[in-house]
Amino acid sequence: MAEWRRSARSGNAGNCVEVATGIGIRDSKAPAAHIEVGAVAWTAFLANVTRER
Fold first, then answer.
1. Largest CB tally within 10 Å, which of 15, 17, 18, 52?
2. Cα(53)–Cα(44) distance, rounded to whole angstroms?
3. With contact defined as beta carbons under 8 Å apart, do 25 and 35 qualify?
4. Torsions phi, psi of 20, nearest 5?
């Protein structure tokens, strides 16, 4: 079973994006569906998000 995680900044809010290593991303309100994201794409995404800060 995948270990889904959400940002610590989400607090107890119900509107969160969750991520599972090697699996992808999903909306916490619709946990049955997820989008597969490969390691290269995820690394590029994180690089872009961090650069925008």
1. 18
2. 15
3. yes
4. -130, 125
Q: 35 forms bridges with which residues in the sheet? A: 25
Burial of 5: CB neighbours in 10 Å, binned 0-12, 13-18, 19+? exposed
Q: Distance (Å, rounded) from C-alpha 26 to C-alpha 51?
A: 23
**Which amino acid is located at 52 in the chain?**
E
Q: What is the pLDDT of residues 21-42, one digit of tens each?
A: 888 899 888 888 999 988 898 8
Q: Which of 27, 22, 23 is nearest to 10 (CA)?
A: 27
What is the pLDDT confidence band of residue 52, given thresholds at 50, 70 and 90? low
Q: What pLDDT, in 10s, does the model give residues 5-17?
A: 887 777 776 778 8
